[in-house]
Write a structure and sequence with these properties.
alpha+beta; 630 residues; transmembrane
Length: 630
């Protein structure tokens, strides 16, 4: 049987007398109201249990530490931070049972901020609440809704703040120089098991290991925050490591300094100071640990410093100058490297002209031969990606010289392509529309989608050194070389429907790729939106104008597919329709094969036409083939 001294909150006297006290039966030696505990001298053998609020516990914590009381905590309605920090169950019966059945107390650490004890957490600046777990008592739906609400809170304008951060190293001494960085905020806890900090984020943390965890949130863009928040929204697994933009310092002493006053909260109590000194007082509090508090009799004091992603130098200065951007800004090194490549790629060269001529020649022969493999070979050879991606960057950053050079190179490339496509057409005794040619004279919105994806691939491949540029080059050539060759064939034939149809596809693909590549570079941080706005608007207008005939072409394709789907395999009075094709939409002209058991005469063929018109509810022109079923 334990001899317990209960210190209680007088404002909760009725509940204490009726609900708390009976749970201890004969184990209570004395009960003291909070205001009178200072009048009593406690001996080393006394075991003290408190039923107090956070504010009351905080006020007597210095005495507890100084006199080294043996103490246990009960969940009070206003004891939120201490309950989290000491792992106390929110269930009163469970907490009482834990106190009565635990044979020994544990000496745990206490985190202090400028000498003031921290019950649970210290927060500096803005944490976006994305690192916090939802209390485990809540059901899954409430957890999901809370995380989603926090994610929505990320859509706002914020600024990083300058901080100088120093910490004690493995030797126990502070670093020679602090790190000057920019951060959104910091979260500091003594351990990651009982605080509201997600247990999935900090592992290998104990309440008596003599170390604290300082998490420094230093994103380079809103996108980084949203990405982590989005994956956290659907990730319910136990392990969920720190996002890349969060630095983690695990040590016993940390000092944070700023030129301006720092607003910070200790257990939700707002304070202000230009300097915050954090220190862990090892094993200074003897308590009955809550069931969720992780303690070990022997723990290794293993410090950790993950600070390599903290912005420093020029990047830090750029981030401090403005609101946090939506997307990451490219580093100076990335910017210089990419721009030198793009400027070189925008220049007209003899090798570019030769490859352009050869790729068009191969593509034109492939079109006449109705050969997809040959056309693919031409795509691999085509050098069009380089000037198009350079043009996209020029449009994005309003770089007139880069735009002119890129336009010049693209123009000469298209001209040489047209020249060889027309010459080959004149010298080739073929004047038949095959499937490869027909497929490229009726562009629609799907082609614009292909162009956009190709532009994204090209820009992304250029921005990342590790990606092979040839892969994206093929994607761009897919969208440009075949329609260029078909347009040249139409010009050589004098068939303006072929020429204009393929030219529309060529223009569509070119505009779509430039816009998509520019948007990709913007997202990757190679231009501020203010500078990019004009070029993007012009590109959007151009793509919008082109999209009108594409939308019409897409609606025609949908209508054709609907007709084919409706008629293919249709059982008519005379036979079954097969191989249905739409030759023309207005007026509707079809070709089809009717499969019957015997040859058909003129009247029966007319009946087939009448049956199809009845199904479609409109008049048609019909090219009909008859197949006899044996």
């Amino acid at each position: 049987m334990k001899s317990i001294i209960l210190i209680y909150d007088e404002s909760q006297l009725e509940f204490f007398e009726n609900s708390v006290l009976p749970l201890f039966s004969n184990n209570v030696k004395m009960k003291l109201p909070y205001k009178e505990y200072r009048k009593h001298d406690f001996s080393e053998s006394d075991f003290i249990v408190t039923y107090l609020s956070d504010e009351q516990i905080r006020s007597l914590l210095d005495v507890i530490i100084e006199d080294h009381w043996k103490i246990g905590f009960l969940p009070h309605p206003k004891m939120l931070e201490a309950r989290q920090g000491f792992g106390v169950s929110s269930n009163l019966e469970v907490a009482v049972e834990n106190i009565l059945t635990t044979e020994e107390v544990f000496d745990i650490d206490v985190l202090t901020a400028n000498g003031q004890p921290v019950l649970n957490k210290l927060m500096i600046g803005d944490s976006f609440s994305l690192l916090y777990a939802v209390e485990k008592e809540k059901n899954w739906f409430i957890q999901f809704a809370t995380r989603f609400k926090r994610l929505l809170g990320s859509f706002r304008r914020v600024r990083l703040q300058p901080y100088a951060i120093n910490w004690s190293t493995e030797s126990g001494e502070f670093r020679e120089k602090p790190i000057d960085t920019a951060a959104l905020g910091m979260v500091v806890v003594q351990h990651g098991q009982s605080s509201i900090l997600s247990r999935r984020i900090i592992e290998g943390s104990y309440a008596n290991d003599g170390l604290m965890h300082c998490l420094i949130l230093a994103p380079s863009s809103i996108w980084e925050i949203l990405k982590f928040g989005f994956f956290s929204l659907f990730n319910s697994s136990k392990k969920n490591g720190l996002p890349e933009y969060v630095a983690h310092i695990k040590t016993d002493k940390v000092k944070v300094v700023s030129r301006e006053a720092i607003n910070y909260t200790v257990d939700d109590v707002l304070l202000t100071s230009k300097s915050i000194e954090l220190e862990v007082l090892p094993r200074s509090l003897a308590i009955v640990p809550g069931k969720s508090l992780k303690t070990e009799k022997k723990v290794e004091k293993s410090k950790a410093f993950k600070v390599q992603n903290l912005p420093q130098g020029e990047l830090k200065n750029e981030l401090l100058e403005r609101f946090l951007p939506i997307t990451n800004h490219a580093t100076t090194e990335e910017f210089k490297w990419l721009f030198s490549i793009l400027r070189e790629n925008s220049k007209l060269s003899s090798s570019y002209m030769v490859l352009m001529a050869l790729s068009t020649i191969i593509a034109t022969f492939g079109l006449f031969g109705d050969s997809s493999p040959v056309i693919i070979g031409a795509m691999i050879l085509a050098p069009l990606m380089s000037p198009i991606i350079s043009l996209a960057m020029g449009v994005l950053r309003q770089d007139e010289k880069l735009i002119k050079e890129s336009f010049k190179t693209i123009g000469f490339g298209l001209a040489i392509g047209y020249l060889f496509a027309v010459l080959i057409t004149w010298f080739t005794p073929l004047n038949v529309m095959n499937s490869e040619i027909t497929a490229r004279i009726r562009p629609n919105l799907l082609d614009l989608g292909v162009a956009a994806a190709s532009g994204v691939a090209g820009a992304y491949a250029h921005a990342k050194k590790e990606i092979a540029k040839t892969l994206a080059g093929v994607a761009i050539a897919v969208a440009l070389v075949p329609p260029l060759a078909v347009s040249g064939v139409g010009l050589g034939w004098g068939d303006w429907s072929v020429f204009w149809g393929a030219l529309l596809l060529l223009g569509t693909n070119l505009a779509g790729m430039v816009l998509a590549a520019a948007m990709t570079f913007l997202f990757l941080g190679f231009s501020p939106f203010k500078l990019a706005k004009k070029g993007l608007i012009i590109s959007l207008v151009f793509v919008g104008v082109i999209s009108a005939p594409l939308a019409f072409g897409f609606s025609k394709m949908v209508k054709e597919n609907k007709i084919i789907q409706e008629l293919s395999g249709k059982e008519l009075s005379i036979g079954t329709l097969r191989d249905v094709k739409v030759i023309k939409v207005a007026p509707l002209k079809l070709s089809a094969t009717i499969v019957s058991e015997s040859p058909l005469d003129v009247n029966e063929l007319g009946k087939v036409k009448e049956d199809i018109e009845e199904v479609l509810s409109q008049e048609i022109e019909l090219e009909l083939s008859v197949a006899i079923e044996l």
